[in-house]
Amino acid sequence: MANLHRLLQDEQDTVALGRKMADAVKHFDQGFVAYLNGDLGAGKTTMTRGFVQGMGHEGHVKSPTYTLVEPYDLGQWQVYHFDLYRLADPEELEFMGIRDYFSENSCCFIEWPEKGEGILANADVTINIAYEDTKRSVEIIAQTTRGENLVDYLKRD
User: Fold this and answer.
1) Which of 20, 22, 96, 142 could share a disulfide with 1, CB 3.0–4.6 Å?
2) How many whole angstroms separate alpha carbon 56 and alpha carbon 110?
3) Which InterPro entries match (predicted)?
4) Distance CA 145, CA 60 (A)
């Protein structure tokens, strides 16, 4: 499977990469699922903010640490930002109807996906974000054909 590695200078670079991902996903004919891995404060929500704004949202994008999910209704697309950090048991996701979030017109960005293992839809990409001095190292690993299409699009820079 294809992958991409980028070194991001700052928050603006992280947001810009999220926006570029949105540009690619807008051309997909189905939904999209991204797993986000990284330490607290690594930039998972910042990248998601760029994606949500790139899909057309103009308001604030906050971390769903306490609510588990923040929904964004963006015309033909639904974007769901999940933060499973505080999840005690993956079965809690079944009670909230998690499977209903994964549809043909939804994009799901899931922080701490290992906490929902066995319940979540499979990822199109896995995004690993890590500190590298004052910068962020981002690796995007394609898991599906849609993920490969995204990585190929991002490599055009």
Assistant:
1) 142
2) 19
3) P-loop_NTPase, T6A_TsaE
4) 31
